[in-house]
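User: Can you recover a sequence for this backbone? Please restate the input before giving your answer.

Assistant: Of course. Working from this structure:
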């Protein structure tokens, strides 16, 4: 996950920097990592995604287009209301340009609605609902990993190909 997260951060930084407003030219580019630091998804995201984000920032030399790159992180507790509250605060008052991770489909879908409202980039690196790229698709969201349709289709096709019929 670390390599994918680093690349996702890189792509997101490029888009966030291009969408930044002219009045915010001196403000740093700010990445928010909304992750699970204390529960079932902490091993596939959590602190590993924070470290990957730091590594991506280092890859850019700590700045982009002459602007410093900052990072903040928070534990969503795998609750959509907590994720939405943090995202809203980050986008309204803390100058976050992009949010990455979102460990569960419920947290990702909740924050996606806000990303549309605030016209801010988010990259979902852990949640898997096909609704992220399906009925809830947004021009501000990139779904970086597999989805539930791909998992079911791939496994189901392989089982049928090998003679399975139930």
């Amino acid at each position: 996950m670390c390599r994918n997260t680093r690349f996702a951060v890189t792509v997101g930084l490029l888009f966030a920097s291009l969408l930044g407003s002219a009045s915010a030219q001196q403000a740093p580019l700010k990445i928010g990592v909304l992750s699970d630091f204390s529960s079932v998804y902490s091993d596939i995201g959590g602190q590993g995604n924070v470290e990957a984000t730091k590594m991506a920032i280092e890859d850019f030399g700590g700045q982009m287009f002459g602007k410093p790159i900052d990072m903040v992180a928070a534990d969503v507790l795998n609750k959509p209301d907590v994720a939405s509250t943090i995202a809203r605060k980050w986008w309204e008052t803390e100058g976050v340009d992009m949010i990455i991770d979102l460990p569960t489909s419920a947290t990702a879908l909740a924050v996606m609605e806000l990303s549309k409202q605030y016209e801010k980039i988010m990259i979902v690196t852990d949640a898997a609902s096909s609704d992220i790229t399906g009925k809830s698709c947004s021009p501000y969201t990139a779904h970086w990993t597999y989805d539930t349709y791909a998992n079911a289709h791939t496994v189901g096709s392989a089982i049928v190909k090998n003679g399975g019929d139930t």
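That completes the design. The helical segments are 2-19, 46-59, 80-93, 105-118, 148-161.
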